[in-house]
Write the structure tokens for this entry.
Amino acid sequence: MALRRVTIEMPSDVLVQQGVVPRVFFDHNESVEILRVYAFQPRERLLLVRVLRSGPRRTADELLAARDSLRRRYHLRDFEILRVEDGGSAYISLLRQRNPGVLEALVEEFGAGVTPTTPSVIGREVATLSFLADDDTAKRVFALLDGVGVRWRLRSRRAIRHGGINADDGLTSRQREILSLAWNLGYFDIPARTGLEKLAELTGLSRNTVSQHLRRGMRRILRESLL
């Protein structure tokens, strides 16, 4: 059955109550935009996000110095600030935390049948969330949300081409995810800002497996580019 990108809207309080976003997050921030969702661990979320701050602008050094305190404040297993934007009023980060509440219920109930995607933005009052699913699975998601008392509104439901996003680049989904994660963490920077050990920790894979995925993915890209 064809996949669709489904976008729904719900009160942000629902996600705060479920622990998706800590309530204290909005003490200093306006919103968090989910740029990329990595599906490596079934009971964890590894997210690339853009945070829009509401407090005073902070330099990159100030934000980096506060990384550990922010990780503890927001109950994150991992928190990496990758870059600061707009003069310190926003930053891009990678975060990891356990799937909480209704999100874990969705993961356990539907597994790979539901894939979170963009656009997903959680603001002070309203959250806009998107996911990929076929029609039958989407109906079951809606029924589950109704069953746990979540008020939601359907914003859009659009078909995507067969094979998913970027299916024509010759990469497997795992190769694409690991290459994306490595790129965003600075694995390919000179000098490199991260290594195989960190990538293995975040993905739950061995260093050798991560290396093989990277090499095979890069081999496919270079073969298409250079031949």
Notes: The longest strand covers residues 29-38. The first helix runs from residue 12 to 17. The domain at 168-226 is CATH 1.10.10 (Arc Repressor Mutant, subunit A).
